[in-house]
Amino acid sequence: MGSAVRCWLCWLAVLLTAGQAQAHQSEIKVGGYDFPPYVMLSESNSQVRGLVPDLLNALNAYQQRWHFKFVPTSTKRRYRDLMDGRYDMILFESREWGWQSHDLDSASLGLNDAEVYVAQLSQAQDQSYFDSFADKNMALFNGYHYQFAGFNSNPEFLREQFNATLTYSHESNLRMLERGRVDMVVVTESFLRRFLQENPELGKEFLVSQKYDQVYRHEVLARRGSELSAAKLMKLLQGLNRAGQLSPVLERHGLHNSLPE
Fold it and tell me: What are the boundaries of the signal sequence (predicted)?
């Protein structure tokens, strides 16, 4: 057999193997809404950045059984989209964020984050500033469930009870604080960590609360009957962690790896 024929047969075997692997690969759709640093969507939802898409890419490179695809949703639409089958699961979520009435498969991600209060140091002076929200203008992320508000995300409630300005950007809220347009911001600690690394001069202007509004007990929530269960996803993440491929993804977005091996 000539070398050219042998080479052709080798390439054919490679293509057949790849085709068989792809044929056995199941697609898992993972939903996500604008939630920096976990998901950062463009206005048209055509582009996505953040921890979740980077984590899905890492999972796709790590194994061949499942192909993870990101599906954009919104803070309000995410409940219906999951139950209607538009996507199969959502990561870095919590049952307390409006999912209590839904029958879902879930598992703790073992990765924690938190929300902190931020104020202008010149106005706040010390930590006692965060003891009361009376007579303070707050900038909040529209659609989020805050513990200080009893996890009530209704915009009118937040405007009336907490004089809240609602936006769709943590950075916009921090910039409003910088310019003195609001008195207090509630922001994800991981996002704030990266923001201050990129804008170190503001670290001297802001006072960050030592207390948390809430500590995120991140979960994966999956629709009942989904081909990939929450427990199976956790096994994949643990494998990714043992391979040393999880920490770089988390640290790139300001999170620490607390997932047990």
Answer: 1-23
Handedness of CA 124, 166, 194, 115 (dihedral sign): positive
98-122 per-residue burial string, b: 16 or more CB within 10 A, e: under 16: bbeeeebbbbebbbebebbbbbbbe
| Cα 90 to Cα 68: distance, rounded to the nearest angstrom | 11
In this prediction, residue 1 carries a pLDDT of: 53
CATH 3.40.190.10 for domain 26-111+217-252: yes
Q: Name 112's bridge partners.
A: 217
Helix, strand or coil, per DSSP, at residue 57: helix
Q: Among all chains, which residue has been given the structure tokens 């976990």?
A: 38
Interatomic CA distance for residues 72 and 62, integer angstroms:
23
pLDDT digits (tens, 9 = 90+) for 101-155: 999 999 999 888 999 999 999 999 899 999 999 889 999 999 999 999 999 999 9
Q: Which of 77, 76, 107, 85 is nearest to 94 (CA)?
A: 107
- Cα separation, 210 vs 118, whole angstroms: 10
DSSP H/E element including 211: strand 206-223
Check if the beta carbon of residue 69 is closer than 8 Å to that of residue 30. Answer: yes
CB atoms within 10 A of CB 216: 21
State the pTM of this model: 0.81
Q: 86, exposed or middle or buried, with CB in 10 Å at 0-12, 13-18, 19+?
A: middle
* Phi then psi dihedrals of residue 82, to 5 deg: -70, -50
Chosen CATH of 113-215 out of 3.40.50.300, 3.40.50.1000, 3.40.190.10, 3.40.50.720: 3.40.190.10
